[in-house]
Amino acid sequence: MGERVIEVSGLTKYYGELLAVDHISFGVRRGEIFGFLGPNGAGKTTTIRMLVGLTRPSEGTAIIDGYDIREEIVEIKRRVGVVPETSNLYDELTVWENLLYMARLYRVPRAERGERVRELLETFDLWKRRDTKFRRLSKGLKRRATVAAALVHRPSILFLDEPTTGLDVVSAGALRGLMRRLREMGVTVFLTTHYIEEADQLCDRVAVIVKGKIVAVDTPENMKSAVQGTPVLEVVFDSPLPSLETEKMDLGTIVVEGNRVKILTEDPSSTLEAVIKLARRHGLRIELVNTLRPSLEDAFVKLTGVSPELMRVEKERGR
Ligand SMILES: Nc1ncnc2c1ncn2[C@@H]1O[C@H](COP(=O)(O)OP(=O)(O)O)[C@@H](O)[C@H]1O
Ligand SMILES: [Mg+2]
Predict the structure, then answer these.
(1) Sheet holding 59-64, edge to edge
(2) Pick from 98, 195, 272, 315: CA 20 to 30 A from residue 309's CA?
């Protein structure tokens, strides 16, 4: 697991004046599931697009499996599979036809195409659906077929852009299982997500990206332990909180979810006093006070100042 199969250095993308990806550097090890975690607009998709040759970097580069994305993108395309956020399969073709078409596009030898596609459809539990038109599949099956199609040329690295976004819980779980299976098969998996829990459960290592900059790269465990000493104070009120923009200054790192606030604090006692004052000021009653162990979500908030709720809200609005 030590070898670096992706080595990104100073990778940068400008769209006109907008700095979408800001001199990022990190490495991905062969055989790991590497997560790119960040809110909407952070630069995740742009990074993937640069790594797989869909858009050119403004500055910096990356070496993938020994090849430079600036000069050897043809070699790279042979070695990587891409699952875009919006499927690249054809609505009017059947599942079978779509995969066969992909196999041809990726120059899989003619004699091997049928067998290769059959194998994939069986592995992905899509064999029974092979004659169904793509547009008639459920969201979950569409995503699964898109992943299968990205593997027809047996890439050693698979890029997935928000693979579970918009899926129901069961389909998302099945897809995560599939990514773990790919790892067992030796495929390096690079995925983007805005689900902190997903990064925690699925990824061997996670890079956190905010506004085009990487703010941390580590295992979920190490990220959690960075805030482990800091207790989290959870307070539940009898009604939803008004906007807390001004109070945030005094309270520090705070997450508001409806009636509930979570505050990362070195000093629970004085923070609790501040919360009581706040409740009085807004005419709220406190129903529950709790201290919790920090989760990856709390670590994320501390690292980025971005509220997990804001990540979810932005994403849904954008869809
Ligand atoms: N083709 C484009 N032209 C101009 N701006 C873009 C383009 N693609 C993305 N952006 C901008 O770049 C930033 C990063 O976008 P993106 O990489 O899609 O973020 P993410 O995938 O993390 O949501 C955003 O501010 C977005 O509006
Ligand atoms: Mg994106």
Answers:
(1) 18-29, 4-15, 59-64, 67-68
(2) 272
Q: Considering only CA atoms, which residue is closest to atom 26 of ligand 1?
A: 41
Residues 6 or more apart from 63 whose CB is under 8 A from it?
Answer: 6, 7, 69
- What rounded mean pLDDT belongs to the chain? 90
Burial 75-92 (b: 16+ CB within 10 A, else e): ebbebbbbbbeebebeee
Clarify whether residues 135 and 199 are in a common domain.
yes
Indicate whether 181 and 252 sit together in one domain: no
Residue closest via CA to ligand 1's atom 14 equals 43
Give the E-state strand segments of 163-299 in sequence order. 188-193, 205-210, 213-218, 232-237, 253-257, 260-264, 286-292
Instruction: Name the nearest CA neighbour of 102 among 122, 115, 88, 92.
Output: 88
The CATH number linked to 34 is 3.40.50.300
Report the residue among 14, 18, 40, 47 best suited for mutation to probe ligand 1: largest number of ligand atoms under 8 A from its CB: 18
pTM for this predicted structure:
0.85
Structural domain span for residue 159? 4-220
Instruction: Map tokens 């482990």 to a residue.
Output: 228
What does the pLDDT read at residue 297?
Answer: 84
